[in-house]
Amino acid sequence: MAHVRKPAVGTVVAFAVLVVLVAACALTYQHFAYRLPDLDQQTVAAAGEEGRLARDGLALADFGDSEGYAYVRSFDQVVSMKFLSDKEIAAFRSGQPGAARATVADTRQGRVVAVVVKMADPATARATAAALDQLQLDTGMQEVPSAPGVHRAELRTGQAADGRAHYADGRLLVRVDLEAAPGTDLEPAFTQLIDRQLRELPADG
What we know:
5 helices; 2 domains; 205 residues; alpha+beta; Protein Transport Mog1p, Chain A; 8 strands; globular; two-stranded antiparallel ribbon
């Protein structure tokens, strides 16, 4: 009768430990995978004064001393700033806005309000930028030539002058608004601000 060798006790113990470790690793992965954030709503702290979001790619130029809007991380918080009209808000919402950044600064050229919002996809970002530009024209602003891919509108009434630009960079929709200071030549001043933002996020041509 053949003699059947029994496995060594040490081998059995080692195998049991290996099974336990594999099971523990699987449970740990499931736990953390379930808790991974949606990158569309990522709200990590900005790194540096230029307002760069390290994980979702949002970036605004440094236009000067900001007025305390570093807390803005979503489009709903942009709405709470109360500078967008109801029609503009509706245009943004039609594109499923997500993560956002905003800055407000008083400069020599005037008051600057700039926002960048992550939209559903690149095509939606481009379409929304065009729709927002059309809303400016509907209120009486005039279309002004600008860099490729940038929609630019300006309005001059007496001593007041205002410029608004919208463009897309991939899924990101950028808006730059300048309420020019008295005596400021709007066209070169606004061009300078737009160019500064384009160095942070170039427009889709």
